[in-house]
Amino acid sequence: MTDGEITKLFELRDESAVAETQKAFGKYCEKIARNILENEQEVQDCVNEVYFKVWESIPPERPRSLAAYLAKITRNAALSRYRKNSAEKRGGGRVPLILDELSELVSDGMSVEQTFERRELIAEINRFLETLPDRNRQIFIGRFVLCESVRDIAKRFGMTANGVSVNINRTKKQLRKHLIKEGYEL
């Protein structure tokens, strides 16, 4: 079933939409959640929460890309669970590292008044990503959207972990330069 057909099922409030979403994107959502949570029960609970959130949000939302929409909801749900779980026990892990890597570019503590600027910043980052070669864009998105480990990205692209880290750092520097050029104070 295509993204459009599944989205149409949600719009029609057809309960098979959830089953079709699970069939088409279940493993994808689980992988994103697993990259953040690492506990299998938490992963399954998170993915079920994602299906519920999608059911509640379509309509009125009509995503252009169901995969991207699911990735965003899954990542946000997993990060919320992670924050809740780690509030009780502070510890190491990949998620704080990933968030720290981008903290120099995007502040988490934006006020309500800055919502518009945040949207503009996100749009500008998306414009920047569109200018990248496909492989560099996929590496960047794998790291910062899908929260994949450097090792997993390296394996997927047949690179060394060091090569992926260098690629990510170069892309972050290019992004920083681009944002400064566009008038963003970082």
Description:
The protein has 186 residues and is an all-alpha fold. 22% of the residues are buried. It has helices spanning 3-11, 16-37, 40-57, 66-88, 94-103, 115-131, 134-144, 150-157, 161-181. The mean pLDDT is 83. The chain folds into 2 domains: 3-88, RNA polymerase sigma factor, region 2, helix turn helix motif (Rna Polymerase Sigma Factor, Chain: A, Orthogonal Bundle), CATH 1.10.1740.10; 94-181, Arc Repressor Mutant, subunit A. Helix 1 (3-11) crosses helix 2 (16-37), helix 2 crosses helix 4 and helix 8 (150-157) packs across helix 9.
- Structural class per helix/strand content? mainly alpha
* Number of discrete helical segments: 9
CATH class of the largest domain: Mainly Alpha
Give me the Rg, rounded. Answer: 17 Å
Give the end-to-end Cα distance, rounded to a whole number of Å.
43 Å
Order of helix and strand elements from N to C terminus: HHHHHHHHH
